[in-house]
Specification:
heterotrimer; A mainly alpha (256); B alpha+beta (161); C mainly beta (106); B: 161 residues; alpha+beta; five-stranded mixed sheet; three-stranded antiparallel sheet; globular; C: five-stranded mixed sheet
Chain lengths: 256, 161, 106
């Protein structure tokens, strides 16, 4: 029986792989946007996300917690020390032994090194810090390399991506792999590569994280969304970033 | 064990999604905002208030709106008025009107010869597919207008988080 | 905390028409939304914007709830002399933000 299930799982992953978008055909959602929305992203002084980035720059220099340290005290100038960091997140954290996304990594630093309270997910300050740090990877290729420690996360994320969920009973793959480029209710379906997070989303009229967007998608399918910081969401983030490996970071992107 | 999904099943599921998308969302109060709609009559009344019921001539005003918006919450629009913008002949003010938003006036500007060029741009919220109208007041007291239609769809995945 | 972004050329020739782009950080709460419980959220928007050139107002705008969050305004002016461009936003609940930029006109 176990061999049968293993065979079925292999067949399922092969079918899923067969329907994945070929690497050379991957496109950023930037290309689906109108001229004016692209212009918003292209110019930092026209991009409202810049307000968050500037707040992040201030937060980087602000002392916090019982240790009375600021990020800059350990990490120096973010423009050099944070370059490339966001491009390889989520990443395995040796200390906790877990896969952490960038937001969780920032909070781990706050708790362990600054002796400060972790920032609330989707709070202005956490989004600002994440946006500021991730922006230092802008233009760099996403660089996710699963190893023995993180392969299980990748497999779990891929499995979640292919699972049908909610009352609407669709999987991510059905829209974003099999029907990307077609239209749904007047809007083009993107391939859904998280190249620009945290993004300024026109629908939110504000900046939000990838996890917020994933939760929106899940509730759009009338499924109960996983909690912020849940293992499921981090695994899914990991799979999505791996799926977008080699594509350039656009943070802070503007998206409809 | 996954079954292979065929196109027909996907379309059926997607139709369900689109049907749900058509229902008003209550969680963030979008439904109430969405149901408040102006009419062309409201817009014409607002234009009359701006012009003091003077005659408005179509022309000289170019209103640029994307024909299909990415998202109705943030739509980039621009207004350009043909005018030498000299002390003797310039645009004094411009107002932009909406026929379907809850309020008919979207934005008002005061210009003058120091503008050099009568060209302004901004980002607006549009409640529905509609035609926008821009009316310009010239230094000689005449009013001119231009309009542009646009299609506004809602985001296809309703979200309340 | 930076709450206004201005794009204006640092230098210009006398008589040249320069483009100015402004962005101010503000939610622009329309007054038409309600909470999950159905309680109306009161209007809280930027109401007016004014640009001055060495103290003289050269452009102004009246904003309404239809303006998107983080209001963006782009307009132009003739570079007449070197000096200071002032940008002033006022809104509900005592909202007042000012910013400035220097320009050298040759």
């Amino acid at each position: 029986m176990r061999r049968l299930l293993a065979g079925a799982a292999l067949a399922a992953s092969l079918i899923a792989a067969a329907q994945e978008i070929p690497p050379s055909e991957r496109r950023s959602s930037y290309e689906l946007m109108g001229r004016e929305t692209k212009a918003m992203q292209d110019d930092d002084t026209s991009n409202p996300a810049t307000f968050w980035v500037l707040d992040g720059e201030s937060a980087w220099k602000r002392k916090a917690g019982a240790a009375g340290k600021a990020c800059v005290d350990c990490h120096g100038d973010a423009q050099s020390t944070m370059k490339g960091v966001a491009a390889r997140y989520p990443a395995h954290d040796a200390k906790s032994g877990r896969l952490l996304n960038l937001e969780q990594r920032i909070n781990a630093c706050r708790v362990d090194n600054q002796q400060a309270k972790p920032l609330v997910f989707e709070s202005r300050e956490l989004l600002a810090l994440t946006a500021y740090i991730a922006k230092q990877s802008r233009g760099l290729p996403i660089d996710i390399r699963p190893d023995a420690k993180t392969q299980p996360n990748l497999d779990a994320g891929r499995s979640l991506y292919n699972r049908k969920i909610g009352q609407i009973d669709l999987s991510c793959a059905q829209c974003h792999d099999q029907n990307a480029g077609r239209h749904l209710a007047g809007n083009p379906i993107p391939q859904a590569h998280p190249t620009g997070y945290p993004i300024y989303r026109l629908e939110w009229q504000g900046v939000g994280s990838l996890q917020r967007r994933l939760r929106n998608c899940m509730s759009g399918l009338r499924a109960e969304a996983y909690d912020y910081g849940s293992q499921e969401l981090v695994d899914l983030e990991y799979y999505l970033m791996w799926r977008a490996r080699g594509m350039k970071v656009e943070t802070p992107a503007v998206r409809p | 064990m996954t079954r292979k999904r065929n196109r027909r099943e996907f379309l059926a599921a997607a139709a369900g999604l689109a049907a749900v998308a058509g229902l008003p969302a209550t969680a963030r109060g979008q439904a109430t905002a969405n149901l408040l709609r102006g009419t062309e009559k409201d817009m014409l009344a607002a234009i009359a208030r701006y012009t003091g019921a003077k005659a408005v001539t179509k022309g000289r005003v170019k209103l640029e709106v994307p024909p299909l918006v990415d998202n109705g919450n943030t739509v980039a629009i621009a207004v350009t008025v043909e005018s030498p913008m000299t002390e003797a002949d310039h645009v004094r003010s411009i107002q932009i009107f909406s026929e379907r938003n809850p309020e008919p006036v979207i934005l008002g500007f005061k210009l003058g010869p120091r503008a050099g060029r009568a060209h302004v741009a901004t980002r607006v919220r549009l409640a529905d597919t509609q035609t926008l109208v821009a009316v310009a007041e010239m230094s000689d007291g005449t009013y001119w207008s231009g309009s542009a239609p646009t299609v506004v769809t809602i985001a296809s995945c309703l979200e309340d988080l | 905390m930076s709450n206004a972004l201005i794009t204006v050329p640092k230098t210009a020739k006398r008589g040249e028409i320069i483009e100015i782009r402004t962005l101010v950080s503000h939610n622009m709460e329309t007054g038409y939304r309600r909470t999950e419980r159905g309680v109306p959220i009161p209007r809280d928007i930027v109401r007016s914007f004014s640009c001055t050139y060495n103290g003289v107002e050269i452009f102004s705008a009246e904003l309404y709830p239809a303006i998107s969050a983080n209001p963006f305004l782009s307009f132009s002016t003739v570079a007449t002399e070197s000096g200071t461009l002032g940008f002033h936003w006022k809104g509900d609940n005592g909202f007042a933000v000012s910013s400035s930029a220097q320009i050298t006109v040759t």
